[in-house]
Design a protein that fits this description.
The complex is a heterodimer of chains A (about 170) and B (about 220). Chain A has about 170 residues and is an alpha+beta fold. Helix content of chain A is about 25%, strand content about 30%. Chain A is built from four helices and nine strands; from the N terminus they run H-E-E-H-E-E-E-E-E-H-E-E-H. In chain A, a hairpin with a 2-residue loop joins strand 3 and strand 4. About 5% of the residues of chain A have low confidence. Chain B is of the alpha+beta class and about 220 residues long. Chain B has two helices and 15 strands. In chain B, strands 5, 6, 7, 8, 11, 12, 13 and 14 form an eight-stranded antiparallel beta sheet that branches. Chain B has a four-stranded antiparallel beta sheet with strand order 1-2-4-3, with no helix packed on it. A three-stranded antiparallel beta sheet of chain B has the order 10-9-15, with no helix packed on it. The longest helix of chain B has about 35 residues. The radius of gyration of chain B is 33 Å and the shape is elongated. The chains are: A alpha+beta (about 170), B alpha+beta (about 220). The interface between A and B is medium-sized, with 26 and 26 residues. Chain A: It is found in: Mitochondrion inner membrane.
């Protein structure tokens, strides 16, 4: 009896390892769901939106100008930022604000990209900290998950509390 | 008439003159039509079993191997002379092969003096292997950078190759973001006479000027 229990336990461990590895490969090489927070990509992506970011473009080096990407923050590798690619390596970027009289330009160095948020007034991006290396990009946002049930949430509550409040009405 | 008997070896016996609509091969023996599908069935099931074993093995082996290489350890060959004399000391001989430990860098913790592999900031398809000279908040005296003294910004570190002058490192492209860290070289595993554990050590002329770490 002990031997059969040991056999079953080992089988369970084996299956857990196998499916854990398959899940890791799926998240690392296919795509993952990301919850975005912050106002820097409005109106495209608002606070608490769930998006799907695919990893294949990043591994195949097919990120293009205009893509929205998720990248590791250059100042804290445990934080992620979600911005739009404005320029690839070698591109000429206009760095002066629209109100300036004299326009200044920079060139994006080799192996780097220039990111900017869609909400230009409320976004810290490459205009503040410069171009970031391509190696920090994690994935390209391709889908946004929308759920009409959560459109009545209050500003300060999490989507789960808003859902429960809605269901209890 | 149809089938009259079905033996355990899987052959049908039908009367002479009747028709057989099954898919087995029919062999005429002594006035009776005996259907011998024994041999053909063996071949079909062996092929199917082989394919099933191959596919299930494939779906187990490939994700496990990829996860091990991503999360645990990685073996890499060192090319170039930027880390001489520590790595690749003989120019004409074989290149060193190092074991890169990916588990110890999953929280991005490195020490000064470690040899690490990072994704090159100039070319994201390439990995470069260098030594960590300074962490965030340290003041470094540079060799050939545009500023002579540099404070390493938050979330960055300063890497240099041991062979100054033959090395594309932070003296060329500045501090490197910690997010580009790929792995820490823990052992030299080839050639066998250079098998050793790599300990973090700084060259004597690359000490820090000042560090902002707590307690110092």
């Amino acid at each position: 009896m002990f031997r059969s229990m040991l056999g079953k336990a080992l089988g369970l461990v084996g299956y857990t390892i196998q499916y854990g590895c398959i899940a890791h490969c799926a998240f690392e090489y296919i795509g993952e769901f990301v919850v975005c927070s912050g106002p820097s990509m409005e109106p495209t992506i608002v606070n608490h939106d769930v998006v799907f970011s695919e990893r294949m473009s990043r591994h195949l080096f097919k990120i293009q100008k205009g893509d929205i990407v998720i990248a590791k923050s250059p100042f804290d590798p445990n934080m992620n930022i979600c911005k739009r690619v404005i320029g690839l390596e070698g591109d000429k970027i206009c760095t002066s604000a629209q109100s300036d009289l004299f326009k200044t330009h920079t060139f994006v160095p080799m192996g780097h990209v220039w990111l900017e948020g869609d909400n230009l007034r409320n976004s810290t991006d490459s205009r503040n900290y410069g171009p970031i290396p391509y190696g920090l990009i994690r994935g390209r946002v391709c889908l946004k998950v929308t759920c009409n049930l959560l459109s009545t949430r209050l500003d300060d509550s999490t989507p789960l509390e808003a859902l429960l409040r809605h269901l209890m009405k | 008439m149809g089938v009259t008997s079905l033996s355990s070896t899987g052959s049908c016996k039908i009367q002479l003159g009747a028709t057989c609509n099954c898919s087995h091969a029919c062999v005429l023996i002594q006035g009776e039509i005996t259907l011998q599908f024994f041999q053909m069935a063996q071949q079909t099931s062996a092929w199917r079993r082989y394919m099933q074993a191959f596919i299930s093995g494939f779906f187990v082996a490939v994700p496990v191997t990829v996860t091990l290489l991503d999360k645990l350890a990685y073996v890499a060959r060192v090319e170039g002379a930027s880390m001489q004399p520590f790595l690749n000391p003989d120019v004409g001989a074989q290149c060193d092969v190092v074991l890169l430990n990916r588990w110890s860098v999953k929280n991005y913790h490195v020490q000064r003096g470690d040899i690490v592999s990072v994704v090159s900031p100039r070319n994201p398809k390439q990995k470069i292997i260098k030594r960590v000279i300074g962490l965030e908040g340290d003041f470094i005296r540079t060799l050939g950078y545009k500023n002579q003294y540099v404070r390493v910004p938050d979330g960055h570190f300063w890497i240099e190759g041991d062979h100054h002058g033959h090395s594309l490192d932070s003296n060329s492209f500045g501090p490197v973001s910690v997010g580009l860290l790929h792995g820490r070289a823990s052992h030299i595993i080839w050639p066998p006479n250079r098998w050793q554990h790599i300990k973090p050590s700084l060259l004597p002329n690359r000490e820090l000027l000042y560090t902002e770490e707590d307690g110092e």
